[in-house]
Amino acid sequence: MDLNKLPDNGISSLMILFCHDFVENTVDRCIYMKVSGSNFIILVLYVDDILLATNDIVLLHDVKKFLSNKFEMKDMGETSYVIGIEIFHERSQGVLGLSQKGYIKRCWRDLEWKVVLQG
Predict the structure, then answer these.
(1) Cα(62)–Cα(103) distance, rounded to whole angstroms?
(2) How deeply is 32 buried, as exposed, middle or buried, from its count of CB atoms within 10 A (0-12, 13-18, 19+)?
(3) Which residue has the higher pLDDT, 22 or 1?
(4) What is the pLDDT of residues 61-103, one digit of tens each?
(5) Buried (b) or exposed (e) across 41-57, using 16+ Cβ within 10 A?
(6) 6, 48 Cβ separation under 8 angstroms
(7) Taking Cα atoms as reference points, which of 95, 116, 103 lies closest to residue 53?
(8) Cα separation values, 32 from 15, 65, 77, 94, Å
(9) Distance spanning both ends of the chain, measured CA to CA
(10) CA 99 to chain centre
(11) Strand order of the sheet with strand 85-90?
């Protein structure tokens, strides 16, 4: 989701999340979580983007609807990359994975160039 227009006061934006039962992560203040019984949804804020991850599609739709009523938003659909991290799914097996393979390849390529140039 892309947030095109946030309210003028960032604190009021966070209060909206707290009023909807999201709890801020104490380690990373860009991550919020809401738990409802055995269901959960994780909301990650990055600049003007929101990434949602959940185990319940109904909860996902409820949160999207709630947020779209508070903010001007554009749903970008399912994500495959965020901040350089590949996200992959194997729904049939209940697997959600993260990979930094691309980042590692770039670092390796940069290191190879440094060795060649210093060579």
Answers:
(1) 34
(2) buried
(3) 22
(4) 999 998 888 778 888 888 888 777 888 888 788 888 889 888 8
(5) bbbbbeeeebbbebeee
(6) yes
(7) 95
(8) 12, 17, 20, 22
(9) 46
(10) 14
(11) 81-82, 85-90, 95-99
CA distance 24 to 7: 19
Report all structural domains of the chain as residue ranges with CATH numbers, in order of start.
1-77 (3.30.310), 80-119 (no CATH)
Q: Is 12 helix (H, G, I), strand (E, B) or coil?
A: helix
β pairing state of 85-90 and 95-99: antiparallel
Q: Which two tokens stand for residue 88?
A: 């992959």
pTM: 0.67
- Tokens 């999201």 found at: 22
